[in-house]
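for the recovery benchmark. tokens below, seq after
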């Protein structure tokens, strides 16, 4: 395999590019500036990127279509999160209440960098197969911008798709791999409870909505634990509960909102009917009218074995076998799963924790940051995978 070590100049450019994105985070379906920055750089490299129909996100082909070989796709996500950036760094977010707290700025930069390297190899005639770059909007909202990208045809002519996700538990210079499910299904659940209201002195004459909401909040997760195979890993966790405005008034309305997560694809498909059944049974005991809003999110990302081995071989070729570690299935959701409903592929966890850092870091926090050496590692990984596939 030809060597593909990033030049110091390109490394510096990619770090600067990532920091620019970090300073200017954009939320889901608002990634106009980010899309234009990526488009302009790809066009500067002589490529012909195409913005997706909704105006954010883009797709870019490298190398002519080959009737004998379909394309390998490399996917990145563009959007940031509605959380404040609490870091004290010079590239801190300039937008109040928004931050790249999940590493999508890194994902975007990695796929851009791989595209620039692969475009040069294509010009030299040393790229063995055509490649497609997919820069997807709106990963952070359900059911995710991947569905829009698929509808726009980004998988047409694609044989396999690969992606990475930053992992602060994995040291920089390493990746985490797993065959089969690597993320969880993630759905949203909202319960709106209604009753006539009344005085707290006479709860037996009305519907005690606070008690009904409390019982639903505690008994639904417990009941599901006895109705679903524990190996399916179904989990209901509430993020919001709201009812009432006075200590001596039983309210007429209450709301509970949370997520339903599931490790198993079959159990995920069965989850809405089961959740509705159990909620109706609990609400009936307390005579509460319950409107259930069950919003489908994303299925689990199920890594295909051949794609995992391609990533393993690519990483080993660049950094040695010790640079690949096994990783567990998480309860986090990732809309990359929608692509895998159509074509085989895999997600690798990209190490971003600085060497020697023993602090516990996590995603979706305002202080999230990465060791920027991970950018070159991701570019090397994708480049090697394209040359091996």
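predicted aa per position
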């Amino acid at each position: 395999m030809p060597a593909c070590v990033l030049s110091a100049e390109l490394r510096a450019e990619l770090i600067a590019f990532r920091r620019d994105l970090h300073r200017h985070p954009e939320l889901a379906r608002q990634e106009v500036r980010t899309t234009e920055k990526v488009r302009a750089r790809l066009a500067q490299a002589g490529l012909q990127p195409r913005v997706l129909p909704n105006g954010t996100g883009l797709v870019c082909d490298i190398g002519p279509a080959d009737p004998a070989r379909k394309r390998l796709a490399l996917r990145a996500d563009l959007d940031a999160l509605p959380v404040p950036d609490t870091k004290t760094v010079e590239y801190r977010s300039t937008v109040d209440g928004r931050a790249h707290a999940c590493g999508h700025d890194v994902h975007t930069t990695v796929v851009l960098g791989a595209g620039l390297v692969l475009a040069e190899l294509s010009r030299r005639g040393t790229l063995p197969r055509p490649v497609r770059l997919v820069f997807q909007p709106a990963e952070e909202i359900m059911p995710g911008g991947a569905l829009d990208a698929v509808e726009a045809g980004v998988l047409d002519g694609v044989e396999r798709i690969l992606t990475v996700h930053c992992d602060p538990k994995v040291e920089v210079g390493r990746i985490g791999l797993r065959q089969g499910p690597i993320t969880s299904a993630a759905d949203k659940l909202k319960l709106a409870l209604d009753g006539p209201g009344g005085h707290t002195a006479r709860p037996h004459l009305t519907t005690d909505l606070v008690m009904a909401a409390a019982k639903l909040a505690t008994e639904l997760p417990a009941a599901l634990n006895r109705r679903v195979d524990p190996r399916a890993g179904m989990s209901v966790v509430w993020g919001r509960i709201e009812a009432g405005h006075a200590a001596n008034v039983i309210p007429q309305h209450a709301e509970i909102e949370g997520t339903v997560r599931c490790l198993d694809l079959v159990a995920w498909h069965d989850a809405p009917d089961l959740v509705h059944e159990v909620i109706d049974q609990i609400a009936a005991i307390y005579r509460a009218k319950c409107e259930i809003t069950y919003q489908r999110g994303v299925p689990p990302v199920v890594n295909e074995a051949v794609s995992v081995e391609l990533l393993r071989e690519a990483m080993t070729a660049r950094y040695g076998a010790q640079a690949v570690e096994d990783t567990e299935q998480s309860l986090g959701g990732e809309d990359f799963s929608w692509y895998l409903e159509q074509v085989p592929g895999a997600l690798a966890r990209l190490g971003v924790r600085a060497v020697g850092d023993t602090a516990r870091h996590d995603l979706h926090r305002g202080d999230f940051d990465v060791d920027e050496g991970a950018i070159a590692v991701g570019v090397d990984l994708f480049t090697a995978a394209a040359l091996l596939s």
